[in-house]
Write a structure and sequence with these properties.
Blueprint (H helix, E strand, L loop, with lengths): L1 E4 L5 H13 L3 E6 L4 E6 L8 H4 L4 E5 L19 E4 L2 E3 L6 E5 L6 H14 L3 E3 L17 H14 L3 E4 L6 H7 L2 E4 L7 H8 L4 E5 L6 H13 L5 E5 L17 H8 L4 E3 L1 H5 L5 H11 L3 E5 L17 H17 L5
Parallel strand pairs: 7-8, 7-14, 8-9, 9-10, 10-11, 11-12, 12-13, 13-14
Antiparallel strand pairs: 1-3, 1-4, 2-3, 5-6
Helix pairs in contact: 3-4, 3-11, 6-7, 10-11
The protein binds phosphoenolpyruvate and manganese (II) ion.
Length: about 350
């Protein structure tokens, strides 16, 4: 349930409500909006006579959230959330659209610096690149691990671009968080609840990708796992789902953008690279994502896609990426956004 405080409620009154909820075994989460403060309370309602909360000074009303996800829901927080990726870069709430671009995998120092330089020059705001790679085959390239993280940190130093990279294992959260600005939870790990809880204990921005066989509600439940541990900096990512269609690697579910926007206050990013699996479909779907209301894009870009160690067929060449950026600016302007 949520306890909506009156606009005039004082800090002391908010504190009293929180204290009372805690005494009855409830977990509490505060959301301070422009107009009102809302206290999310998660626990066993049979342990508490609700009237005793309603009577406390400063309380406006108690609302029961019927959705299984609570902190993630629009009912809990009406205003769009702005997630701070770094001190100077944020995403959400109609702010600048954030373009995250770079190779699928960090393959080597030289290759990464080349890619980072190219995406920076074309106007990307974040560098992407996997050091720990979730591959379908155990015999495929698994990523450079910590060495790859070091190259990402070096690329950030050289270009000034913040870095998003995947963390696959609870045992590596601390290590990856040491190097990355934003932690990516890959599609295959969307329902790895221990991993979600672990990144929920950090204060890093999290990019949570939708599993290829997961519903939007399941994605929101996974975000709830992260938020319930205290980390509110969650960005959701639509990256395509499995359908009967075989013409593309996945079916990019752009419905997810307006649906998530309605159900949740969290920012939404779209990844048309994994969503289509083919580079020449990527620009159209990237433009469509912005038109649909996405707050950002994740795009795979490789200096020489034909030499890529993973996902070369869906990676844009730097020049294609640069011309796409120009088109994205036009679509962004048409929907009242900036790139
Ligand atoms: C990736 O971003 O390279 C990746 C593996 O994505 P996904 O988890 O969406 O398949
Ligand atoms: Mn990839």
């Amino acid at each position: 349930m949520i306890i909506i405080m009156k606009p005039s409620a004082t800090e002391v009154q908010i504190g009293q409500v929180v204290e009372k909820l805690k005494q009855h075994g409830f977990g509490t989460h505060l959301s301070r909006g422009v107009e009102r403060t809302v206290i999310g309370a998660i626990g066993d309602k049979t342990m508490l006579e609700l009237d005793t909360i309603q009577m406390l000074p400063g309380v406006s009303e108690i609302v029961h959230i019927r959705k299984p996800y609570k902190l993630v829901s629009r009912e809990f927080k009406q205003e769009d959330t702005v997630v701070q990726i770094t001190k100077s870069l944020s995403i959400g709430a109609g702010q600048k659209i954030v373009i995250m671009a770079g190779p699928c995998s960090v393959e080597g120092k030289k290759e990464l610096l080349e890619a980072a330089d190219a995406v920076k020059r074309a106007g990307a705001a974040v560098l992407r690149g996997g050091a720990f790679k979730p591959r379908t085959s155990p015999y495929s390239f698994q990523g450079l691990g910590e060495e790859g993280l070091k190259y990402l940190a070096l690329a950030r130093k050289k270009t000034g671009l913040p870095v998003v990279t995947e963390v696959m294992d609870t045992r590596e959260v601390e290590l990856v968080a040491k190097y990355a600005d934003m932690l990516q939870i890959g599609a295959r790990n969307m329902a790895n609840f221990n991993l979600l809880k672990e990144v929920g204990k950090t204060n890093k921005a999290i990019l949570l990708k939708r599993g290829p066989g997961s519903t939007i509600q399941e994605l929101l439940m996974s975000a709830e796992y992260i938020m319930s541990e205290g980390n509110k900096n969650v960005v959701l990512c639509e990256r395509g789902i499995k359908t009967f269609e075989t013409a593309t690697r996945n079916t990019l579910d752009l419905n997810a953008v307006p649906v998530i926007k309605k159900l949740s206050h969290l920012p939404v990013v779209v990844d048309p690279s994994h969503g289509t699996g083919e580079w020449d479909y990527v620009p159209a779907m990237a433009l469509a994502s912005i038109a649909a209301g996405a707050d950002g894009l994740m795009l795979e870009v490789h200096p020489r896609p034909e030499e890529a160690m993973s996902d070369g067929s869906q990676s844009l060449k730097p020049e294609t990426f640069a011309s796409l950026m120009k088109e994205l600016k036009r679509v962004a302007a048409a929907v009242g956004r900036k790139l």
